[in-house]
Amino acid sequence: MNRAIGLGIAAAMVWVMAALRPAEGVKAAGGPAGAGNEDYRVLAPLESGNLLLFPVVKANGKPAGATPFLTLDEGIKSGQVEVTEAGRVRGLVRPRPGSNPWPDVRMRGDQVNTLVLVNNSDRPLLLLAGEIVTGGKQDRVIAKDRIVPPGSDPIDLSVFCIEPGRWVESSATFGGTAKSPAESFMVQPTVRQQAMVAKNQQQVWDSVHGSIARMESAPAAPGAMGGTIAVPLNTTSYAKAMENGAVSAKVDEAAAPVMKAREQVLARLRQEQAVGVVVAVRGELVWADLFADTDLLSRYWTKLVRSYAAESLTEGEEHAAPTVADAQQFLDMPRNGMETSEGEVGVYRYSELKAGGADLFVLKSLLPGASYDVHISRVKLRGEYRGPRPPVVY
Question: CA 212 to CA 215: how far, in whole Å?
Fold first, then answer.
């Protein structure tokens, strides 16, 4: 796995034309829990240095038809979705004739682990754990998947801080992470795991500190001065560290084979009706993201790939390269374990299944005409897990 990172466009096109063909002799042992009766099949991977991405297709049946969901990036860019500190909630509530002008949103000032979001669009909003909003008094990361119905009153958005040390407002509302789709990113798997699995603010901060430190010592991109990035990032913000020119260049280099031929890759993914990927870093299978359809996968493609690439930047234990069968086995891990769920009646259900060394998260839409699994994550548990702690309140 310790190869030169950039494979170039030619290697990417070889993968586009050949690697997405179904692997011979591999049969799905069963899809993730909550995924109905449809199995998933893993295809041959695209390799880029320390990163392997195994596309996933549905073995039986077709992906869901065109889904109605709006993404966070799309909502913020259009101005239809607004995110702000909890203390500003009253300014967002829409009074309704004959109703309480201040519905059941009881905030007592700004809080580290709470933001308020309002969806003013006419489409349901899809939020994924690991997505970043920047601004306010601290940059935050969304803690769990959820669906926000259109035209809803402000919701209490569960978040974790990824910028320890700042509690001074930089803007009244929050924005996304990029000026263009090509620059979009979310937190890498090590940070995302702490938000989703540990549900622990201190562990999120620890993972942010560790990620920033490893970014500073990562090998520099070709043509850069010095053997490492070697530029003190001078920030506690994960988002600002990722926006650093040297770090961003290194992430883009790690993702080059997929991103330089992005449109060709996405065209082939659509043709194959791929709905997700299984991710290996330095030979270790660590993550899987699956969506209801190819369109949703393509809309999150840049954001996800850059997060996986960031994870592959830094030094770590090397493992033998996994095979397609290994990736299939990871996706089909046993589903017997302790399950918890939450959600909103008629809108969504979000379930977590703890089984063995991996957790499974399933976001199911309950909306009329769109009752299906929207997003599934398989997370290999890595590092220390200390369990949830109470929210931090400044």
Answer: 5
